[in-house]
Amino acid sequence: MSSEPLVQIRDLNFSYDSRAILSGINMVIPRGKIVAIMGLSGCGKTTTLRLVGGQLKPSSGAVRVAGQVVHELDNEGLYAMRRRMGMLFQFGALFTDMSVYDNVAFQMREHTDLPAEMIHDLVLMKLHAVGLRGAHDLMPAELSGGMARRVALARAIALDPLLIMYDEPFAGLDPISLSIVGELIRKLNDALGISSIVVTHDVQESLKIVDYVYFMAGGKIVAEGTAEDIRRSTEPFVHQFVWGEIDGPMNFHYPAAAYGKEMMEQPGKPRRWWA
Amino acid sequence: MTPADLLRQLGHRVTSRLWRLGFASRFLLMTLLYSGTALKRFQLTIREIYFTGVLSLIIILVSGLFVGMVLGLQGYDTLQRYGSSEALGILVALSLVRELGPVVAALLFASRAGSAITAEIGLMKATEQLSAMEMMAVNPIARVVAPRFWAGVISMPLLAALFSAMGVLGGWLVGVQLIGVDEGSFWSQMQAAVDFRQDIMNGVIKSCVFGVLVSWIAVFEGFDADPTAEGVSRATTRTVVTSSLAILAADFVLTAFMFRGI
To answer: Could you tell me which of B242, B150, B148, B158 has the C-alpha nearest to residue B203?
Structure first.
């Protein structure tokens, strides 16, 4: 295996219509490591993931995955690359019309000619790895949030990818499920020799498991470092974020006109006639 | 608002409609292009035929029966004024196979199955299932859209045929069994007057066209829906409205071409 990092992001810019979402992003995801991208909602974290997965095309700059520039690949090349990537979506995005078993088997059936017996064994192994072998007959609607996330994780590792991308893997989980998912991300990464990108705003849980952190705000990287660096950071935004403080560079109030002035104004018409 | 503003708004609406139509056409092309999976792994399409076609059977059969019964009543009422109530069979059969069968079955199909297809695809988009599929290197157009499209195209003519058959049965029930029109002339006049190519085949062609239209609109609206609860509900409504209008407009055009000689 080469020592070149698995994912390299160079001077990445992305804008939607004329609104700049990302500007000048540089990131490196070394092989075998877990890298977190943290920041507030809407700061461009998920967009970065979509650019890595080739679902969006950058305005300028490039994402390299295993030496290939993602946005220069044709459809076939892109699909070939995605077969070596797994992605865990925010709420699992399990196929609701298929059982847990069929969800995990989906990619094996689509992309390989493996006989049914082999797929059966592989699916049970993947489900066993996330502790849900006993749930293989259930439908996604019968799973709790944490279980759904774990099934999605089993599905993401179905074809033994090189890279797994996690989009908010901790969102909306109870503390126990949260630790389980966190633990699983670390274990799978080390046991399977995968590299992982975790997009999250759950600071405490992710700092426990990740190797390196990029901090984003307003489409830029504002800080980076190991978990320890981030905990000790004196950068005001990072400090506010990590310790969840209300006072800091991020305001509690949405930008508004002067308080006194607005109170003195005549009440306006309701925004909707029925309100 | 100045006249220039009005004109600009009008122009904007027209161009955005045209854009959407162009997008929908490209989407249809992509669907046809990626139909390989749906046809090669036909069990995918069969499953959708069950959901769109088989589950629409009840509404189609019952509606067909009632439409035929109403035709029997109304047709008899008019025909007996001219003393030709034996021609009831012709009236019932021709109006069903030429017009009512394909059109009403398609309208029912659009509201029963088309709306379901749109809602399902729209919700799959809203819950990121389509994105997930794309990230698993599986093309959602090939795996999700094309089987549903072909299921609709295959089901529609069959449903229309069943609708017409039930309608004829309903007309017979009311005309012959209830009112007492002569059974022999009911059936023999029907057989003599209904032409296989001119009437039945044209009806089949119509229902095939409607099948393509409804399925196309349904899958496109679902795929194009805003990924929110409101967006999916709007898309579902649009499917029913647009496909109903499209069916009626296409029916006029097709009828004008098919039956101009008579």
So the answer is: B158
From chain B, pick out residues whose CB is under 8 angstroms from the CB of A154: none
Report which of A5, A22, A101 is spatially closest to residue A60, judged by C-alpha positions: A22
Tell me whether strands A68-69 and A60-65 are parallel, antiparallel or unpaired: antiparallel
User: Reduced to 3 DSSP states, what percent helix, strand and coil does chain A have, rounded to the nearest 5?
Assistant: 40, 20, 40
CA distances from A72 to A58, A68, A186 (A): 10, 8, 32
pLDDT in tens, A116-126: 999 999 999 99
Structure tokens at A32: 């075998």
Question: Is A89 within 8 Å of B131 when comparing Cβ atoms?
Answer: yes
Q: The tokens of A49 are what?
A: 């993931």
Q: Establish if B128 touches chain A: CB-CB under 8 angstroms.
A: yes
Question: Nearest by CB to A107, which of B124, B129, B136?
Answer: B136
Taking CB atoms and an 8 Å limit, are A91 and B127 in contact across chains?
yes
Q: Is B143–A110 a contact, with Cβ atoms under 8 angstroms apart?
A: yes
**What are the structure tokens assigned to A247, written together?**
């006072």
Token pair 């600071």 is at which residue? A203
**Tens of pLDDT along B179-224?**
999 999 999 999 999 999 889 999 999 999 999 999 999 999 999 9
pTM for this model (two decimals):
0.87
- In one-letter notation, the amino acid at residue A95 is F
Cα–Cα distances (Å) from B135 to A24, A93, A217, A230, B180, in that order, read 25, 11, 26, 31, 66
Domains of chain A: 7-264 (3.40.50.300)
Distance of alpha carbon B170 from alpha carbon B87, whole angstroms: 16
Per-residue pLDDT tens over the stretch A217-254: 888 888 888 888 888 888 887 888 787 777 777 667 77
Instruction: Give the bridge partners for A212, in sequence order.
Output: A35
Q: Of all helices (H) and strands (E), which one includes residue A23?
A: strand A19-29
Which residue's entry shows tokens 């072909």?
Answer: B150
Check if the interface score ipTM surpasses 0.90: no
Distance CA A193, CA A129 (A): 15
Integer Cα distance of A144 and A176 in angstroms: 12
Q: Cβ B135–A96 below 8 Å, yes or no? A: no
Amino acid at A133: R
Q: Is the dihedral of CA A152, A155, A157, A162 positive or negative?
A: negative
The answer, yes or no, to whether residue B68 has pLDDT greater than 60, is yes
Chains A and B: how many Cβ contacts under 8 Å?
47
Secondary structure element (H or E) that encloses residue A65, with its range: strand A60-65
Q: Does B198 touch chain A (CB under 8 A)?
A: no
Q: How far is CA A64 from CA A6, A8, A67, A83, in A?
A: 8, 5, 6, 16
State the distance between the two ends of chain A, measured CA to CA, in whole angstroms. Answer: 63
Residues of chain A with Cβ-Cβ distance to B133 below 8 Å are 95
**Interface touch A110/B138, C-beta < 8 Å:** yes
